[in-house]
Amino acid sequence: MDFVARAPRIPAPGETVLGGDFRMLPGGKGANQANAAARLLRDGRVHMCGRVGYDAFADGLRASLAAAGVDTAFVTATQQAATGVAMIWLDEAGQNSILVAPGANLAVDRAFLEPLRPLFRRAACALFQLETPLDAVAYGLRIAREEGALTILDPAPAQPLPRELLEQVDLLTPNETEAAMLTGESDAEEALLAMGARGVVLKLGARGCSHAGMHVPGFAVDVVDTTAAGDTFNAALAVALAEEKEIAAALRFANAAAALSVTKLGAQTPAPSREEVDDYCSRLP
To answer: Is 231 a known active-site residue?
Structure first.
């Protein structure tokens, strides 16, 4: 669950800033991506796999996903921890600073993932993030690839990643900050490939994205909130690749979906529908 507060600027360490409005909105990187993918997918089904606690937030988060068309059969409750939360500060330009308390997300482990093999076997794409334990992410990536799914990893929140994990990633999708943290080099795409990733899509914010030496420009929009732009991008990319679009067309589709997502407040509610993205793309030069 996202706790979102607006302020003139994001507080510096030790500073108190008088903010504006406050909202409590469904969030979580995996849930954001599942929500966006379900809104964008023409045919098929999106499954969300994860953990929540036994608390006031769990039912609301499941209901929000189900309302978008996500199958939540594999979102299970644990008594080990509370449902994960994020504290999000938004400045007047729509930029954000986020603190995540993972809670029940940390209860995702190999024992939770192993029964998902049949699900991965039926999947075109499997999306992963780093809000669950790294060992679970590595294991999930491995069994997803073993069962034939295309694996996409959003390496956020950024942390060092071992080569054996990266070798199970078909497409790694860092933003520039995450790429720099992972590599410490200016030519991040080449460095990430050398570290083991099979393919890299570098998210460049308003400038779009790049892949294999190809730059796909972004689209100019009025920015309200950038909170889940990267999640929407990943979801749209997965949907486009599942529909067997060429990579350039898939990246353009992902850029368009991400651009539309930042024109509204929140992480899941702003995710555009397929009709909205197709209509937007049809009007672009």
So the answer is: yes
